[in-house]
Fold Carboxylesterase.
Amino acid sequence: WWRTCVVLVCVTAVLADEEWRQVNTAQGPVRGQKHPSGHLYAFYNVPYATAPKGIHKFKAPLPPPVRTEPFDAVNKNVVCPQYIDMDSKMPGRHLEQSEDCLIANIFVPDTNENNLPVLVYVHGGAFILGFGDMMRATQLMKSKDFIMVTFNYRLGIHGFLCLGTEDVPGNAGLKDQVALLRWVKDNIANFGGDPNKVTLAGYSAGSTSVDLLMLSKAAKGLFHRVIPESGANLAAFGMQRDPLEVAKSHAKTLQFTNVEDISALEQFYKTASMELLTADSFLLRPDSTFLFGPCVERDTEGAFLTKSPLTILKNGDYEKLPMLYGFANMEGLFRIDMFNDWKDKMNSNFAEFLPADLKFETDGAKEEVIELIKKFYFGGQPVSNDNILRYVDYFSDVPFVYPTLRSAKLQVEAGNDQVYLYEYSFVDENDNVVPHTNVRGADHVAQTVALMDGEDESLKSQAYQNMRKIIREIWHNFIITGTPVPADSSLPAWPPARANWSPHMRLLEKPVLQGVLLGERAQFWDDIYEKYYLDAVPPAAPNTDNGNGGEGDGGNGGEGDGGNGGEGDGGNGGEGDGGNGGEGDGGNAGEGDGGNGGEGDGGNGGEGDGGNGGEGDGGNGGEGDGGNGGEGDGGNGGEGDGGNGGEGDGGEGDGGEGDGGEGDGGEGDGGEGDGGEGDGGEGDGGEGDGGEGDGGEGDGGDGGEGDGGEGEGGDGGEGDGGDGGEGDGGDGGEGDGGNDSGDNTDNGSGDDNGSGDNEDDTDAADSAGHRDLIGSNLMILTVVLYFSKLLLNTN
């Protein structure tokens, strides 16, 4: 009997050894378990980097932790912070949101072979949701001849806030992806992989990531083939047009008002809780963006992209790699659940649904393009049940189809002769028809759903099982050889595309090589984007100190924007006249005190917007006449006290013809001194609106001690006044009022006492509508449904 026991012990030890595989990495040994599929080992939750925390949470990733003891890589459930509680949406999973989320999952064939090709797969989710283990490819890996890596990266604001500062440079989520690729290069050989045969693939936002990584110098040489599935580097959602404005706009929705002070804005985001940063989904925007996403960074060390994707593609300054590039034939079904709501909105205000990467100089040009789109897609008829398929086409083309075809064309023109185009068009007889039709289509990332594991495949139709075999063969061919159809394949020959989007493979149960891929639709948008494209720009440089002016007149500003003040005091004006502002925006004051005016006349404001006050006190006026306001918008007050009026007369001309500052007033008190000892200005007040934001939170300054001006009282502005601040209104001046020869108009809709209680009705209604939209779970659940298809068999 003791011999039997010895044999059983030995067999158990062998089986235990077979259940685990240990691999040494640069950070220490890790142990993976045999996967239930039986033909591979899975290493979950392996740290590839460390996410900075606290006020550093937007910085580039740090190196991963080092261990000396073996690490059991078995936890499947760590995900990065995100809006949706994925645990409640994914049956059978017990997911844990954590800032310590930069982990990789490595799937290694049960073989002793080395130098295997590697597939790195980037998950999608609008840059807002998702995690690496959302998809697995055990069926694709049955050939046991390549390794697969999936991973998490930072999402939403956490991953894509872009202020252009040292602490918030932008693209943290993409820098995580670069860190993962570097980890693969340094460690994958220990798992049996070849770091020189890495294919990078991804779906939806992951597809856009792959396409952007191909353009980034930071990722050059880290992968060698690419498979973007339904997402391109030129997608409107793939690049923030103006990341600073995005950050400011969202901060206001979070009740932070001092958005024009970049240092204060940065501090707000750096100290915000993760719960606050993940409070909104951004999934319901009609402009084909999800608000926060990748950005063009300032040219600093460690930047991911310092030029726009379009600029890089046109210059050809990137590594040309073999590319398997395409989309499903009805990507726009992604928005089908919004149809009943959006069709009426499209009929009443189609401009809301234009892609965010178009810009028009005039309303007439915008209306002309809108009419062209309505005619092209809807035959000039209202959007209705009768043309719902054209609605699907529109939301296929704008976010997915056209950006892919535009990028493919530019790549071929730049010399990439290995771009293989496809359209996934297979539909199963059991798929739902499009509402109000008898037509079926392949919806967003349908090719990914076919490729990856899902529900029990034996329950699917034989046609769909055949389609899955075909798409897996094509992807496998590309991973191994760099071509989708090798010479010895039974599939139709598949040559690379030319610049006219031809040929392409139509992926059906029996694939068919065809000519131009959606050429008429692509050319339609080519004509529009050639004239009206709004390219992405980096954030402005952080503030630097301004020097003191000389003893002569201050120079006139140029035709561009005035410079931003530094974090110290603004420079003092010279003893002559202050310089006139340029035709662009006036510069923002720094975090210190604003500079004092010179002993001559104060300079006139430029024709653009007036500068915003800094966080310190506003500068005092010069001893001469005060300058006239510019023709553009007035600047917002700073957080400190407003400056005292000059000792001379107020300006004799009219106030600026533009609007008051669109941001909130300063949070400090108004000027503590008198309004100036001379007469008030003889001209009218500005003709534009008051500021659209709230008034300052401090008290208003006291009025001047001198007499009022002899001219007409200025009109209060033809638009609405801004909302009052939370402090008291300023006291009236101690001198006599001016001889008023004209009638004063309404001062605006704000509360005279600055109580902040009187909001503009339109703004309130818009805010309420925004809250209702964000509160809707319909579209959010639709997104989760798409991704949950990839999880039904991944427990």
